[in-house]
Structure formats: C-alpha cells, structure tokens
Amino acid sequence: MRPTFGFSSGPGSTPERGVSSLPQNPSFLALAGLAFRLVWRRWPIFAPAVAIAIAVQTLVALVGRVPHGIDLDTFVVPPILTTLVYAFVAADARAQPVETRAIWERFLERSWAVIAIDFVLSIVSAIGLGSGASGNFIDVLGGVAIVGLSAMLVFADASATVDDDLTVWSVVPRAFARSLTAAWQRSVFPRAFAIFGLQLLVFALQSALYALLQHGHLPNALFWSQIPLLTVAVPPLSALTVLVYLAADSAHARAPE
Prior knowledge:
single chain; 9 helices
C-alpha cells in the first residue's frame, strides 16, 4: 500500500492514504459529479488561475510573438494549471484536511514532472493518431496500439502529483508504471478510455472552432481556437482524472492480496 497525498513534511510524519472520503466503488458519473463540485468549491483559485494562464499564453504567442509560441504555451502552461487542480482536488477528496501550505508546496514540487509527462504523452498521442489516419494497414494497427497505450497512461500526471513516495529521479517512470497499473484494473480500464475520449473531444472542438474562425477571417484564428478552450477545459477534466485515479488506487488497496 503506497501513501497517496499524505503530504509527509518531515521524517517523523506519517502520510495517510487520501481517498477515505470517496465512496467505495463510485460510478463514473458519480465521480464526474464530485469533480464538478470540487472544482466549484475551489473556483476562487481556479478561475483566476485560468484567467492568468490565458493571459500568459496571450503575452507569449500574440504580444511577444515568441517563435512557436502556441506550441510553447500548450506544452508548459496547461500542465502547470493541471498540477494546481490535481493538488487541490486531491486534497479536498481527503476525509482529513490538508494544510493549504502543503498543497501549494506539492504544486510547486511536482509541476515540472507534469510538464515532462504531458509533453511525452502529447508526442505519443500525436504519433498514434497520425499513424491511425494512415492508409497503410500496418500503420493503422500500430496507431491503434499507440493510442491504446496513450489512454492507459492518462493517469501518469495525476500519479506524479498526488503520490507521496516518489523522488525526483523516480517520479516520472513510476508515474507511468502506476498509470498502467491503475488503468489495467477491470473497472478502471473503460474509464481511462473515457477520459482519453474526452481529451480527444476537446481536440475535435478545437479543430471545428479553428475552421469556423478561419472561415470568418479572424486574425490569429489558430491561437483563439486552441488556447482558451483548452485552458478552460483543464479544471473539470483534471479533477475527473485525479478522482478516477484516487478511486482506482483505493480499490486496489482494498483488494485482497
């Protein structure tokens, strides 16, 4: 049994598992409802964070005209926001309170790992989707396999944020391994693909919005179709992801050895 989000801050402290307030064997819809409630509970933090994230990305891509600014925005800012949501939602899901300072410390401590993990997953997913769209049968099979792997790694950044027993050197590889372990559970497997499907839905909406804005000849259509929608979608999707992971981790801990 590994400690999850106990925020062990010293050698004498004993981290606790952080999912005791979650119902046992919750349905996916129940977790989705809880995710929205916890996001709403923290709206005084998440709403300004989303606004700041969009503002920073606008400064980088449109005002500063940084080369590849949209790519830089996408690979850095949303993962930082994701880490913030993971930290607060996971803390709120615990039966016993977590100090606010400890939540912010976890956010600062693990943001780099989430950036790294999400960058790798973005590349892997892009390769899988690109291969799946190929006309070559072998490429299609390979693409389907890669997309399936991407779906099973959907909890990696959540693990990197909420699991306590990770070091700087082990956080990324163990996060990938623990995501695979969680997703391989029979009850969690379809939920992992559902979350991945929601991520693809956001991508599809971005593509549709881009076509609409481009048709209307709006300047910087790519930015306005990609960044605001993705950033606004981060809190609810991240909250759902971390709650599904915590529920899966709790179920795995209760399972007989």
